[in-house]
Amino acid sequence: MSEAKKHDHSALVDKLHRELPGDKKLCDLADLFKIFGDTTRMRILFSLFESELCVCAIAELLEMTQSAISHQLKVLKDNRLVANRREGKTIFYFLADDHVRKIIEQGYEHLTEDEHHEKII
Amino acid sequence: MSEAKKHDHSALVDKLHRELPGDKKLCDLADLFKIFGDTTRMRILFSLFESELCVCAIAELLEMTQSAISHQLKVLKDNRLVANRREGKTIFYFLADDHVRKIIEQGYEHLTEDEHHEKII
DNA sequence: CTATCATATGAATACACATTCATATGAACG
DNA sequence: CGTTCATATGAATGTGTATTCATATGATAG
To answer: How many helices and strands in chain B, by DSSP H and E?
Structure first.
């Protein structure tokens, strides 16, 4: 037997090490949440909650540069959170699927629960 | 009436502007997701899915510095995603509530749906 | 084909933040 | 108390990335 060092958890650690999802999965998951972790992108997603919008409408709404919006829309599209369709010169963006709404709603719930906590203080 | 400029959406933009959640809410929400948007924090959260763990167990499991883990645990705790309890010298961390699990699971679902897409290609 | 409108994109800049290193706190034990 | 173990924390560093600026693409109208 190996001499037990200070505070040995090798057994537990080994077990958990086998159970943890692969690094690829965890990294992908973190990358997904990273997309939601930016105020501009979050505001864009909320803008698209009700209806599709063209790029310049989003830019006006959020009072930001067309370029800034366009860059972020690319990030959102590359990660399949939004999709777009062309109509003449205009390109309309819309939410890609319902997961986007669900993920955001879950986050919202956590927040409101926190407010509950703050009231007590 | 104001002269309609090129591509006028002022009506739609005004309407949406009133409907959008306040900047504080959106910022808080983005900040929440930002927490999940880091591989180390995601791995820590997954480590705690099954059972509570002390800091050095997490550090061993993830093969990272105690300091790095401690810094991230602070972030997680400040945002109420984990909580801790003391037992002598040791401090055990655990998931604060079920929202954490739900949020992560929603993200996971979105990912697996994407894999579906990739298979078709 | 040229001008214009809508959008995309590359490079540069500026800022946020994860990790490291050194050190501090804090509990238990002799 | 002084030492040791477990954890926390402050400052410095390096990396990632959001925005800006300038410019490119791409569609439409004349």
So the answer is: 6, 3
Provide the 8-state DSSP code for B85: E
Q: Are A73 and A44 in contact (CB under 8 A)?
A: yes
Q: How far is B34 from chain A (nearest CA, A)?
A: 4
CB-CB: which of B7, B46, B50 is closest to A21? B46
- The rounded percent of chain A whose pLDDT value lies above 70 is 88
CA distance B42 to A33: 10
The mean pLDDT of B105-118, rounded to a whole number, is: 76
Q: How far apart are CA B7 and CA A120, in angstroms?
A: 49
Name the residue with tokens 């929400």: B29
Structure confidence by residue, pLDDT tens digits, B4-23:
456 788 899 999 999 999 88
What is the least distance, in Å, from the CA of A67 to any CA of chain B? 17
pLDDT digits (tens, 9 = 90+) for B75-108: 999 999 999 999 999 999 999 988 899 899 888 8
Q: Please answer yes or no on whether B12 and A38 come within 8 Å at the CB atom.
A: no
The closest of B78, B104, B25 to A108, measured between CA atoms, is B25
- CA dist B73 and B58 (Å) reads 10
pTM of the predicted protein model: 0.89
CA of A84 to C1' of D12 (A): 44
Sign of the dihedral defined by the CA atoms of residues B107, B109, B113, B118, in that order: positive
Is the distance between the Cβ of A89 and the closest atom of strand D smaller than 7 Å? yes
| Segments in A7-97 forming alpha helices (H) | 10-19, 23-36, 39-47, 55-62, 66-78
